[in-house]
Amino acid sequence: MRNSSNKIFYSALGAAVLLAAVVAANVVCAFLYARHDMTADKLYTLSDNSRKVLAKLDTPVTLRFYYSKSSKDMPLFLKNYARQVEDLLAEYRQAGKGKITVAKFDPQPDSDAEDAAMLDGVSGQQLPSGDKIYLGLAASCLDSTTALPFLSAERESLLEYDITSAIASVARPTKPVIGVMSALPVFGSQAPPMMMGQMDPSRNQPAWVFIDELKKRYEVKDIPLEAKEIAPDVSVLLLIHPCGVSEATEFAIDQFLLRGGKLAAFLDPKSYLAQMAASKSPMSGQQPANTSSDMKQLLQAWGVKFDAAMTIGDLEFGRRIEQPRQLTFLNVLDVTRKGIDKHDILTAQLNKLTLPFAGFFTGEPAAGLKRTVLLKTTKDSAPVAAATCDNPELVFRNFKADPDEYDLAISLVGKFKTAFPDGPPGEKPKDGKTPDFLKESKTPSMVVLVADSDMLSDQAGVQTRNILGQKLVMLINDNLKFGENVVDALGGDSDLIGIRGREAVSRPFERVNEIRAQAERQYKERVVGLEESLRETQRKLNELQRQKTGDQRFIMSPEQERELKNFQAKQNEVRKELKEVRKQLRSNIDSLENRLKWINIALVPALVILFGLGFGIVRKRRSSAR
Description:
Elements: H1 2-32, H2 48-55, E1 61-67, H3 76-96, E2 100-105, H4 112-120, E3 125-126, E4 132-133, E5 135-141, E6 144-148, H5 159-171, E7 177-182, H6 209-215, E8 219-222, E9 234-240, H7 247-258, E10 262-266, H8 272-280, H9 296-302, E11 305-306, E12 310-314, E13 318-321, E14 327-335, E15 353-356, E16 361-362, E17 369-376, E18 381-385, H10 392-398, E19 407-414, E20 445-450, H11 458-461, E21 462-467, E22 470-475, H12 479-491, H13 495-500, H14 510-546, H15 558-625
Parallel strand pairs: 1-2, 7-8, 7-9, 9-10, 10-20
Antiparallel strand pairs: 1-5, 3-4, 5-6, 11-16, 12-18, 13-14, 14-15, 17-19, 19-20, 21-22
Helix pairs in contact: 14-15
């Protein structure tokens, strides 16, 4: 009895000591602000890229956190998120080593804290009760302030990027200048005042989210398509569907690059945004839509080929549309990790990109240039004429994949040579002398070429929601991240790339896509074969009909009746076989997905159970041996 009491006593004592040790460890860790992040992507730990940005600070930055902590109307999920924000701000203060100061405010109605929030650009969110709540942040350095008006929990995975970006923007004395040249309304569009009453108000469009995001960190200039010179203060030139640029403008771009500028060109063989804009224009019936863009002279000098009349289709990356019926849009590409360069800083942390009606690049780079493929198709791809690419059924029926992979985006690095060795186009030598111009860059430069421009648009990359009266932009893929990565790398803000890439996005099952593509190849081949058989039967019926004369045309001959029955039988056969192929396709995909789900759900618990059983068996054997 005494032994039993001793065991209970010592067990209780051990549990109490363990509990005390855990509590003490938590107190010490809280005092020293030490913790361990066990998430796969370390989402709650300050990244190395943020630490690099903080290490470059030479002037203190103040982070003012506005949170309605005492408000009873503050939703519970926002209270929990606010604690997470506070934890992250503590990490910034610790990593800043004296260069980061965090100030916390609780804005109450008619208080000094509320006035300070309004001055900093942090706006209160109106609740149904009429009261306002605050959950925002302002970063300031000297006379510069950048506000994050509302920290939404839905942008949790981008929280670190938003804060680090705000710090970098206020700490930079002057913002780099980004020039944007585009035939699309990237800066927004507004109907002429004289036509406001006659036109749809929805034609007044805001600037693209991509442009608004760039304006937070850069000075963004609108460069006209007919520009004959690029201003000297422009450090990065961004071309988004530069449709119809003249040789004189190409020469200006050429000289900009040779004097040390950086260039990113988003070209397009089929811009659906340009086509939509042309269809809504009152003049749309009088002129063709400018849906394709190219830079023939420059690309030729760089050793790059781009056919502006051809798009690319891909059986594996093609967009699957379920409504109103199952359909594969081969020319709308959802590029997964399989087609993304995992090693280049521009793309290493991207997971999915959507490129509608993209083109492709071929050719060998000119001497002195290094070419890197950033995005590419699979080997189940093939060129498709841009004139027919928006007819998914026609494209699918005529599609024949080839074993080649096609480049969707590339970068060129090195010393560039002029594409105009004879000097400015259209200018005659004066007094027998050619005007001075640059023939080769003195230092290495960089050009990024992307075979699609619509990917940067709001329609292709974002969703907007209204939360508590605040317009919130949500990324639906990595399109805008890729565009910003390109500008940040060219503009010298490459440390922000690694932070932006930490967002947790959906990672599609690549094996599922491969099975689907394989099944669709078989399905398409069977469709083509059966349709050919049906066309042959229809041809025989037409031939028998032509042989009749007069009133006989309305009477079916025995031969026609046989052919008609044959035709109907083949139709039924086609429907049955296609139904069986679709059924088998769904069965293969569902089976694989179910196996993967059960592995994800059951594997870890099964391993824990097996470990526990093994540990128990070993312990029992040791006890028996004693």
